[in-house]
């Protein structure tokens, strides 16, 4: 059984390759960039290259993509070529190769404008049933790629799982208010309350999806750390998130104060992972409760895999105004 991993030089691709190699699994990494985790260099928009890369493959994890940080530096057609045409090439060649399962890495960014409630409204409770309202070419092309995956599951009998992952990158936030008001570690710990997931848990979800897809046929899942909140907390976390956190997790404020950290005053959304936990058997470890336990014991709260993969950036150049230009 050989697994094809696309985007093997990226954050998730490297994490997948590290994990699969450590487990002595047969795996082939492809990327447009050479790396220690890339076995074949080429573009997924090149159908001939994809055909060669698919030879002998039984399972596919499609993590390669142009991301939100590329919106200001790449044209619309670049996104169409990579995110849509590249996905189509992979799907078509996967059918030809008769692969057993195809896992597509999507993003919670597909929800777009649906994630931002009006002023005074409760925070959004985001499940797979929320209707996406794409905000940029990244969201549009990822949604289109999801549609292609669903089409191939229906028409070609390809077993497909779509994983809409929340934030797992270690780079500083592109929002200057967050970047200037919180350390990266503080901000990312906060996000585990509602919109972040550790890359180790993301890898675990992908490998479970790879295994479960043939029995499921087609599924779409939000992959984000388990939140301590419930739907009944949505109005309160929009008004005063620290108060709700302290009510649910007594002592959290003191642990934060000991580190010189602070909570976000308000939260506008909560990603709900219940379907992935139920249908995939996924059990994410690195959630906000884990952060508090680590702060209490003065231990590192990020996974060893996250630390090993580290920060990669999305561009070859450095931008003065932030980690990447915002389009």
TrEMBL record:
SUPFAM superfamilies: NAD(P)-binding Rossmann-fold domains. Residues 3-212 form the NAD-dependent epimerase/dehydratase domain. InterPro entries: Epimerase_deHydtase, Lipid_A_modif_metabolic_enz, NAD(P)-bd_dom_sf. Its EC number is 5.1.3.2. Keywords: Isomerase. Pfam families: Epimerase (PF01370). One of its GO terms (molecular function) is UDP-glucose 4-epimerase activity. Gene3D superfamilies: NAD(P)-binding Rossmann-like Domain (3.40.50.720). This is UDP-glucose 4-epimerase. It comes from Rhizobium esperanzae. The lineage of its organism: Bacteria, Pseudomonadati, Pseudomonadota, Alphaproteobacteria, Hyphomicrobiales.
């Amino acid at each position: 059984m050989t697994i094809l991993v696309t985007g093997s030089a990226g954050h998730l691709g490297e994490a997948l390759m590290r994990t699969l190699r450590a487990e002595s699994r047969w795996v082939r990494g492809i990327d447009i960039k050479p790396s220690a985790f890339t076995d074949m260099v080429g573009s997924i928009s090149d159908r001939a290259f994809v055909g060669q890369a698919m030879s002998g493959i039984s399972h596919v994890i499609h993590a390669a993509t142009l991301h939100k940080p590329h919106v200001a530096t790449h044209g619309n057609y670049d996104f169409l070529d990579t995110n849509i045409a590249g996905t189509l090439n992979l799907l078509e060649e996967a059918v030809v190769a008769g692969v057993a399962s195809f896992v597509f890495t999507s993003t919670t960014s597909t929800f777009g404008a649906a994630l931002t409630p009006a002023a005074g409204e409760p925070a959004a409770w985001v499940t797979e049933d929320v209707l996406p309202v794409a905000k940029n070419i990244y969201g549009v092309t990822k949604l289109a790629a999801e549609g292609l995956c669903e089409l191939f599951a229906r028409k070609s009998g390809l077993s497909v799982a779509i994983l809409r992952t929340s934030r797992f990158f270690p780079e500083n936030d592109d929002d200057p208010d967050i970047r200037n008001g919180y350390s990266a570690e503080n901000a990312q710990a906060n996000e585990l309350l509602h919109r972040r997931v550790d890359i180790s848990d993301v890898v675990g979800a992908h490998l479970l999806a790879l295994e479960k897809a043939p029995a499921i046929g087609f599924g779409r899942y939000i992959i984000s750390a388990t939140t301590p909140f419930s739907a009944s907390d949505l109005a309160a976390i929009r008004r005063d998130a620290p108060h709700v956190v302290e009510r649910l997790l007594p002592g959290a404020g003191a642990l934060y104060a000991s580190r010189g950290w602070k909570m976000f005053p308000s939260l506008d959304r909560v990603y709900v992972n219940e379907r992935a936990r139920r249908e995939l058997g996924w059990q994410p470890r690195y959630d906000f409760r884990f952060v508090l336990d680590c702060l209490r014991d003065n231990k590192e709260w990020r996974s060893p895999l996250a630390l090993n993969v580290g920060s990669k950036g999305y561009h070859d150049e450095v931008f003065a105004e932030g980690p990447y230009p915002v389009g």
